[in-house]
Specification:
The chain is α/β, with parallel strands linked by helices. The chain has a single domain, classed as TIM Barrel (Alpha-Beta Barrel). The protein has ten helices and twelve strands. The chain has helices at 45-57, 76-84, 99-108, 123-130, 135-147, 167-173, 202-212, 276-280, 286-294, 321-324, and strands spanning 12-16, 62-66, 89-94, 113-117, 151-158, 179-185, 216-217, 226-230, 237-241, 254-257, 262-264, 273-274. Helix 1 (45-57) packs parallel to helix 2 (76-84) and helix 2 (76-84) runs parallel beside helix 3. The longest helix has 13 residues, at 45-57. The model has no long low-confidence stretch (mean pLDDT 92). The chain binds S-adenosylmethionine (SAM) and iron/sulfur cluster (SF4). The site of iron/sulfur cluster has 12 residues, from loops.
Length: 326
């Protein structure tokens, strides 16, 4: 078992397949012109499988594939198949644009739940936020995933002055469809135009929700990052991922592997541990994994607290979200 200095067992691995993406969400990409990592510098499919097996042998029972956009990687289907055979709970976070091409492989790999990102129900605003005309495709692929019987969570980064006026519409969407909307508080990363004034907090989202609906809280499961709610009579639910205002670090079980094979013990960690180079040199990477987790900070990578006014984005030491893998 991989345990850190605060007795937190780490059994959940998030693997980024690529830092490439076919959308350009401003809050995720760095400000400057960004060059995606060439394929040769990324973990190859076989390396992903072998490294994942090492984590599984050390107690990991859940793996999430993410990115960048995991489904733009040419060998994404092969990787999904390989990881589907590991006997862990496999899942995927995607922007939904390519899902229609992967539905068969997703189901064959035993994936039963998907996180699909969609920040707005307005086609023009989608274009503004992602700089790509893919709204209809994402909507039709969400509908497809539901028809195929998958548990669909919709990730919405809630931002003041941008999509905060759509909170009620998103919750209304859960009435007749089994959609699980998750509002995510806007988080700061290198060069992503973060400002505390733009964060729509858990408390503010809940206020909007309770003004419009009868809201009932649902029980929190262990390790869960989302505070979940239901409106009586609705097929779906909604939740808030309150990383900024009320983080859930105390029972964190997550580890991350970037597409270029660096392990991060926290989304906000200032350091990372190269696993790919030693793996390619034939070294045993298990001690490196354990050391990385022993070095894990108590909360938020030790970089900031919930006092958002005090966060100076220029002083944060981190990658941009697209290169970490959300
Ligand atoms: N491309 C896939 C997608 O968009 O779902 C997977 C990768 S993306 C980095 C994973 C999640 O991180 C998405 O739901 C995205 O909205 C979220 N995200 C990216 N930048 C964020 C930020 N600054 N604050 C909060 N969530 C963010
Ligand atoms: Fe791409 Fe996902 Fe980042 Fe948007 S949030 S730019 S879809 S990786």
């Amino acid at each position: 078992m991989i345990v850190d200095g605060f007795n937190r067992v780490h059994d959940y691995l998030r693997i980024s397949l690529t830092d490439n993406c076919n959308l350009r969400c401003f809050y995720c990409m760095p400000e400057e012109e960004y060059e995606f990592t060439p394929a040769s510098k990324l973990m190859q499919a076989e390396e992903i499988e072998t490294i994942a097996k090492i984590f599984v042998a050390n107690g990991v029972n859940k793996i999430r594939l993410t990115g960048g956009e995991p489904l733009v990687r040419k060998d994404a289907a092969d990787i999904i198949r390989r990881l589907g055979a590991l006997g862990v709970r496999l899942t995927l976070t995607t922007n939904g644009t390519r899902l229609h091409d992967f539905m068969d492989v997703i189901k064959a790999a035993g994936i039963t739940s998907l996180n699909i990102s969609l920040d707005t129900l307005d086609k023009d605003r989608f274009m503004l936020m992602t700089r790509r005309d893919q709204y209809d495709r994402v909507r039709s692929n969400i509908a497809l995933a539901i028809r195929e019987g998958l548990h669909v969570k919709v990730n919405v980064v809630a931002m003041k002055g941008l999509n905060d006026g759509e909170i009620v519409d998103f919750i209304r969407w859960t009435k007749d469809e089994p959609i699980h909307v998750r509002f995510i508080e806007f988080m700061p990363f290198s060069g992503n135009k973060w400002n505390s004034d733009r964060v729509m907090t858990w408390q503010q989202i809940l206020e909007v929700a309770t003004n419009a609906f009868d809201v009932l809280p649902l029980e929190r499961e262990k390790h869960e990052t989302a505070k979940k709610y239901i409106i009586p009579g609705h097929l779906g639910t909604f939740a808030v991922i309150s990383t900024m205002s009320a983080p859930f670090c105390s029972d964190c079980n997550r580890m991350r592997l970037t597409a270029d094979g660096k392990m991060k013990n926290c989304l906000f960690s200032t350091t990372e541990t190269d696993l790919l180079t030693p793996h390619r040199q034939g070294m045993d990477i298990v001690p490196l994994i354990y050391q990385s987790i022993r070095d894990k900070q108590k909360a938020l990578g030790g970089q900031f607290t919930t006092d958002m006014e005090k966060i100076e984005t220029s002083k944060l030491e981190n990658r941009s979200m697209i290169t970490i893998g959300g």
